[in-house]
Each structure stands twice: as C-alpha cells, then as structure tokens.
Amino acid sequence: MTRKYKRTRLGANMVDAYVGQQLRKQRTLLGYSQQTLGDKVALTFQQIQKYERGANRIGASRLYQFAQVLNVPIDYFFQEIPDDMADKITTRNEDGEFKIWEEDQAAYDAEPLITKRETLELVRAYYNIPSPQLRKKFFELCKSLSADTVVATATDSADTTE
After folding, report:
1. Considering only CA atoms, which of 25, 23, 28 is closest in space to residue 124?
2. Cα-trace Rg, the chain
3. What is the pLDDT of residues 20-50, one digit of tens each?
4. Residues 6+ apart with CB under 8 A from 148
5. Can you tell me the mean pLDDT for 69-89?
6. 54 and 16 in contact (C-beta within 8 Å)?
7. Residue-level pLDDT at 118
8. Banded model confidence at residue 8, pLDDT cuts 50, 70, 90
C-alpha cells in the first residue's frame, strides 16, 4: 500500500512547512514575536520556531489554539495550498536545516511580497499612523519615491547602452 502523504526521518512534509509559513505570516502581521505567541499558547519560542519552519507538525488542538489567538479561521492555515503540496518533501542540509528539493527551490524562493516580513511590518506601521491625512501623505510619498526610482533606473539603463 502506497502512502500519499510522504514523511521521512530526513524531512518534513511540505504541508507542515506551508502551515508553518501561514502561522509566521499571521503572527508577524499582528506584531507578535515568537516569544509573545509562545506565551499566549504556553509554548517556548523554540517550539514556535520549529512549527514555523515545518520541522514539527502542528496537532489539531494546537492549530485550533493558534487560530483563536491569531483571530483567524482554521482554514486560514490551508488557504491557497497547492494541490501537489503533500507529495513534496524537504530534506535537511549539512547544518540540519530543512531544504526543499532542488526542483521546488525556485518556487519556494519566489515568495510573494505580501508574506515577506518587511512588507508586513510596513503595512502594520502604515495602519498605526493615527491621522488619515498623514497616512495619505505617506502613501503619496512612497508612490513618488518608487516612481522616481523607476525613472532613475530607466535613465541609468539608457545611459549605459549608448
């Protein structure tokens, strides 16, 4: 009998890693440190790290607890999960860290901007600006700076091709 969901002593199932990424994303979005989240669910920050990396599986009762603390429905942890995710396995490198099979590495590295820590912190900081007028000015400044960067990059590229 073949098992559809693979797991070896060397690696973790990709679903575990995906659920861990979702946990990390929501924790960061709410501004919780691993220690803070750990305190709220009576775990050490090291255990939170293991869950977020997918090194340890999150049991159903613990997942329910995380959903309550992070104020998300349980299915949040599985939203937009690729259909073939369960067939992929990670392995450990020489340092003991989990590494995805080479053919999956590019897809893993192409993490959407919205899940990056810097983006989440920027969004949180933006919405912490108390004045709607200041928020709008900050938004316009960011758009202006990014437009200037695009123009400067295009100009620099044109100068180097001549």
Report:
1. 28
2. 20
3. 989 998 998 888 999 999 999 999 999 999 9
4. none
5. 79
6. yes
7. 79
8. very low
